[in-house]
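Example complex used in Figure S2.
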Amino acid sequence: MKALIRYSPLLLLALAWEALARFNIVDSLALPPLSRVAVAWVDLVRDGELITNGEASLYRAFAGLLLAVLFGGALGMAMARWRMLDIFANPLVELFYPLPKSALIPITVLWLGFGDGSKILLIFLACMIPVTIGAYNGARGSEQVLVWSARSMGASRLRMMWDVVMPSALPELLNGIRTALALAFILLVSSELIVSQQGFGYLIGYLGSTGAYEGMYAVVLTVAFLGFAADRLYQILMQWLLRWRE
Amino acid sequence: MARVEDQAGLAAAEADIAHVASRRLDLAFRGGAGAFSVLLLLLFWQGFAHSGRVTPFMLPSFTVVLEYIKNDAIGGDLWINLGLTLYRAMAGFFIAAAGGIVLGALMSRNKLVHWFFDPIISVGFPMPKIAFLPVIILWLGVYDVAKISIVVFDATFPVVTATLAGIAAVEKELLWSARNMGANEREMMWQVVLPAASPQILTGLQVALPIALIVEIIAEMVMGGYGLGGAMMGASRFANSPGVFAGIVEIAVVGFILIKAMAMIRRRLLVWHQETAERTSA
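Predicted assembly (528 residues):
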């Protein structure tokens, strides 16, 4: 009940959308009624188009993000521990941090073409920056006393990274990954809108160019919902991973 | 007794001076190393491009790209594209900033406004709003209005959430004393609440600025026309790889300058705040 009251404005928006389109207050071509969008969504699921394109997109996003987390996390923690690496890698991270990441789209296309590879590389390169910064800030904050005691108890450098530095870096690392997750969705959809033969963005562009606007709205809403759901699920995962902190 | 204290004080002062000096050295060293590693990257780029391992199409050498940018600048195209991209991104950013702060302030003041916008903001914030780009094109076309609109649509959310959080965190004692001294609603908002919330609001703006740039570049790439993103896409369509790399260098420089400028403005505006004092003395 409480949730119903809280989220009722969204319901009101949906009703307003339906009414505006139904009574032709706005051009129903530019804004087809929500009910027709829902029908188009069911059709797209039935004939498999939404599923196959969705699978392609999610695979790209996941692969790129996974690589970014592995490399970015390792690089960030290594930078925090080894001063020489920090001194040389940090300026490069600072140089690439403010780069509007979408500028990488044409370059990755130039290198790897229109397929999966260019999207995965794009998401990997762009998402690595926030993950690296998160891991770096987190690992730098890890208490020196803990590190010293682990060393004195004979932990090897790698072992110490895994058992001491990583857990204390975790909260900031996880926050960096959250930023990366949002960025991955943005870059995925836009790179697919710009150059692709498969994926959500491609499907949106294709349906739009053929005038199938109900279908276009259906895919747009699906992507928006997936981005939202991914963030919510990630937050739950984060809380679970950090449950040992009081 | 007093002598021991003096000595302790002296030792502390000496340690302080040594600390500051070593920090200065460290900063200078870091600055030098920073310039050095950027230089190293450029040298590596140049060397790799000439090594024969990659074709000039995959990676034109840095000097070729610089030459391209120079010609672009002399021909005037660079300034048109740069001006348009900056104009749209900044127009979108400022509209989003003003609108976001106003909406956040209204939400914090009025229960009904809060009830209506709260689910929209909290559901809308994590959504990839760039997916709505084709819808914006359908409604508004492919010119400035459409490009600025998508920037506003994307950049408003972080400003609203930061403003809300900032206002919610203002100390109650501050509000009570201001009210006690007879401040009216308007004075409360402008002279107490917003200034006290400004560090968080500025953080929101610092999140919104890179979003505005990213989205503006995407919009230009999708919609075409003039602008740094559009020029980059055009070069990519004609397999003009120096043009593509020139684009990324130009966009990187613009992003770097804007984001550094924003951080400087933050330090300037928050001179009174303890955060600035901590940063300069630490």
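Chain B has a mean pLDDT of 87. The longest helix of chain B spans residues 2-50.
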